[in-house]
């Protein structure tokens, strides 16, 4: 039996900051009545 990929993983804090500083824009994703809603988010690090 093969292992199922994990949908999420816990990142070290340093890797989180590295990823954030390299991205020009982020996304906020939520579900409303079972449908995904994706919004672009500007941020500064």
Question: Key features?
Answer:
45 residues; alpha+beta; 2 strands
Q: Estimate percent helicity.
A: 10-25%
Strand line-up of the largest beta sheet: 1-2
Order of helices and strands: HEE
Name the beta content range: 25-35%
DSSP E strands, number: 2
Class based on secondary structure composition and strand pairing: alpha+beta
How many structural domains can be distinguished in the coordinates? 1
Model regions low in confidence, pLDDT < 50 over at least 5 residues: none
Summarize model confidence as the mean pLDDT. Answer: 90
**Main sheet makeup:** 2 strands, antiparallel
- 3D shape: flat
In DSSP terms (H or I, runs of 4 or more residues), the helix count works out at 1
Q: Terminal Cα separation, in Å? A: 43 Å
Radius of gyration: 15 Å
